[in-house]
Amino acid sequence: MWFCSKHSYILLKCSYVFYKHSGFALITKKFITLTSPTMKIIMNSLKSIYPVSKSENLEKLTAFEQAYFNIPNDFREYLINYNVAKPRKTYYKDRVEFDLNYLFGFSKNAYEDFLETIKTYTNRTDKNLFPIGSVDGGDLLCMDKNTQEIYYWNHEINDQGLEGNNTPATKISANLDEFLESLTISSEPTEYEIKRAIQNAVVTTTPKGVEIRNEQRKKKGLRPLTIEEWHAKLNGIYDPDTVNPNQST
């Protein structure tokens, strides 16, 4: 990527061009997100799980804010533009270690719905926090209503609805954008990925994806898997780390 501040041009290697004058105009792929008047390039793209209607999302968001509380700008913009979404990279390993399943939105599925999740976890998270995402293993990604800071909520030690639990959630990022940029590609499929694969579709990977995941496995002292073994692992057919494929059924 090249940047020329004098003329405010950016030329991306993927042959897309961005030009700034008083505002912004952009021909782009999904991995770039902008907010005016400040430029913001988000390399960890978000992919909406369902078709998005910005007008409907805005209407639902307005109704929510009138009934409950004002959503911080970062998550508000996300809800309007993406609704329920999953980032391309999902693995966080800085202060704690976890895989993000998806960010909540407005959905008929209660487990994905922003409002239903807030109702479920009322008085179970820290006072100023509200849930914004599902984390593998039953945990939550949360945001502070006042500061927009991002927190990791562990259901085993941070659930204040359970007797004896008073440990506060762990702060992991200053804001949503910073959190998304800190994510990497996991070396293992999440429980959520396996569940969706079994229920809805077949998960596929590419040689490059295999290379990246195997690099993560190498750091853990695990052997590299073939693309066929990754197909089996991602789709829950068998676990090549524990099962001989010749013995799988």
From TrEMBL:
It comes from Capnocytophaga canis. Residues 51-182 form the Knr4/Smi1-like domain. InterPro entries: Knr4/Smi1-like_dom (IPR018958), Knr4/Smi1-like_sf (IPR037883). It holds the Pfam family SMI1_KNR4. This is SMI1/KNR4 family protein.
